[in-house]
Amino acid sequence: MMIYNKNLIAGCGLSGAVIARLLADIGEKVIVIDRKNHIAGNIYDYKDENGIYIHKYGSHIFHTNNEKVWEFLNRFTSFNTYMHKVIALIDGIETTIPFNINTLYDVFPKSLAKRLEEKLLNKFEYNTKVPILEFQKQDDNDLKFLADYIYEKVFLHYTAKQWGKNPDEIASAVTARVPVHVSKDDRYFQDKYQGIPLNGYTKMVENILNHPNIEVKLNTDFKEFASDNQEELKNFRIFYTGSIDEFFDYKYGELPYRSVHFKFETHNREFYQSNAVVNYPCNYDFTRIHEYKYYLNDESDKTVIAKEYSEYFENGKNERYYPICNDDNKNLYEKYLSQTPDNLYFLGRLGDYKYYDMDKAVERAINLFEEIKNG
Ligand code: UDP
Using one digit for the tens of pLDDT, what is the confidence trace for 284-307? Predict the structure, then answer.
């Protein structure tokens, strides 16, 4: 049996950094390469000239119920106690989503809101989360009205902008991320642990990678590195966090992704909007506006915002952000996966072609490490 104690990790994002550190901690040597000129992948952030931490690839809010994941990350950073809320502008009214009991009172006249609240509480236990596609199955006329309202005002147009499709044409798990919440808890997440790393995500990843057994090489393409070091790599385990179709030179075709791009603006005033994220489900071409200073309470006379626009991923033009989960794409992914050579492991959003949140990416890296650590 081949004993590997050297590891090459392709991709220096959260998944790559976590598995690198876990291997380094048990005495293995690790090389982490990334073709980008920075670490941290899509959770990369930086402090700009105004002293504001900018999340270059869109807002990242850490949240988890997983004790192992929380403990692991707390070795490398402290988190603040920021609890994310999302404001949505519906018919010109600012309210919170996921749609919840407070939302009822924001958008409807009080008497109607009260009637709907009573009907909701008769039908569902308090604190129930109901995906919109389930919530649409109502017999009662008032609740049917409410379901149609939420479907149209929150999901229909936003999903068209975000995915180019109707909510019932995409994987149900996607819209289920933002369920109707029969509750007055209007936070975006209910997880036990939530927050933003006090010195930013990049610093957190830098600390994860800061180990004598870990060598990081940026501006380094996997294919070139692998062909330049063919002989040596025969004794390496390889962890690949890039897109699995690219690894196999797209031989069965491309796995599709959605991408996003951001239009950044700096404004000469303290705040631009009332919240870190404001969604525009029905208006404009962007899906949402991020205002970054809220996350770490950065103090500045100026503020930086980013308008987020969704688009298809096109190789060489933009970045991969969201796998498009449907049966055809899953089958294509499985076909690639079945070709995996012995000493190679795929992980991360792109390697697993899964819409992971940050904690799930960390959990996956920890579980993979547990599986292979003695091999
Ligand atoms: N969604 C929506 N309206 C909203 C917010 C979300 O229709 O105001 C749908 C949309 O399809 C989106 C999905 O719910 O892609 C998941 O939203 P989430 O905020 O979790 O997406 P992320 O922050 O990961 O981009």
Answer: 999 999 999 999 999 999 999 999
**What pLDDT digit, counting tens, does each position of 155-193 carry?**
999 999 999 999 999 999 999 999 999 999 999 999 999
CA of 175 from ligand 1 middle (Å) equals: 6
What single DSSP character describes residue 131? Answer: -
Residue 188 alpha carbon, nearest atom of ligand 1: 19
- The 10s digit of each residue's pLDDT in 46-99 is 999 999 999 999 999 999 999 999 999 999 999 999 999 999 999 999 999 999
Cβ–ligand 1 contact at 177 (below 6 Å): yes
Ligand 1 contact via 279 beta carbon (within 6 Å): yes
Query: CA 240, CA 344: separation in Å to the nearest integer?
Result: 7
| All structural domains of the chain with their residue ranges | 6-82+198-253+323-374, 86-186
The protein residue whose alpha carbon is closest to atom 7 in ligand 1 is 155
Instruction: Quickly name the fold that domain 6-82+198-253+323-374 has.
Output: Rossmann fold (3.40.50)
- The model's pTM is 0.97
Sheet containing 214-217: which strands, arranged edge to edge?
Answer: 214-217, 29-33, 6-10, 236-240, 344-346
Nearest CA, atom 24, ligand 1: 357
Probe residue for ligand 1, chosen from 135, 169, 177, 282 as the CB with the greatest number of ligand atoms within 8 Å: 177
Contacts of 206 (CB under 8 A, 6+ apart): 39, 40
